[in-house]
Design brief:
The structure holds two protein chains of two kinds.
Chain A (H helix, E strand, L loop, with lengths): L3 E4 L2 E4 L5 E7 L5 E7 L6 E8 L2 E4 L6 E3 L9 E3 L8 E8 L7 E2 L3 E5 L1
Parallel strand pairs in A: 2-11
Antiparallel strand pairs in A: 1-3, 3-8, 4-5, 4-9, 5-6, 7-8, 9-10, 9-11
Chain B lengths: L3 E4 L2 E5 L4 E7 L6 E7 L6 E7 L4 E4 L2 E6 L4 E6 L8 E9 L4 E4 L3 E6 L1
The chains are: A mainly beta, B mainly beta.
Chain lengths: 112, 112
Amino acid sequence: DGGITQSPKYLFRKEGQNVTLSCEQNLNHDAMYWYRQDPGQGLRLIYYSQIVNDFQKGDIAEGYSVSREKKESFPLTVTSAQKNPTAFYLCASSQTGLSEQYFGPGTRLTVT
Amino acid sequence: GENVEQHPSTLSVQEGDSAVIKCTYSDSASNYFPWYKQELGKRPQLIIDIRSNVGEKKDQRIAVTLNKTAKHFSLHITETQPEDSAVYFCAASSRNTGKLIFGQGTTLQVKP
């Protein structure tokens, strides 16, 4: 089954803890992205990577970190520095930066 | 900076009527314009896209028009059905940064 997967679907953490969200794709896509979506809001870009071992900050990178050690994987760490981490996180991938993006099913993170 | 404005933010139509959502973009170098549909709690999925070398594209009840001079593109849904109810996002490619710039989304409600 090809596609892009995220795990877990729901994640609960205590304030002050770092948490890592998984994103894996077997589409052989070069580019990968992380978005944050708050209730009733649009998609805000956190980080993106157009090639292995390289990534760029998006519009709301503060309090987040990423790595791109493998083409198929782009994990996102939500650090304790992120002031309001509770949100729906979507990962996406595309063949290039200027082509259709395929989205994962999302991870809903709740921090209390 | 690069920007995509989407209007309206909410749209309510009667089943069978048409719905139109409009977007304007700021980057004159943009050449790829996808539209995504996101049902409640689900991932965004591509419904139609257009590249800058054409002015219109249709797929059954869905059509997209592009006016490059005005930097404006629109989604048209005809004969709307209750299952069309969702949030719709437009996007424009950024040649400078190699990513998509998303609009804020339109919540479409189709009343039976």
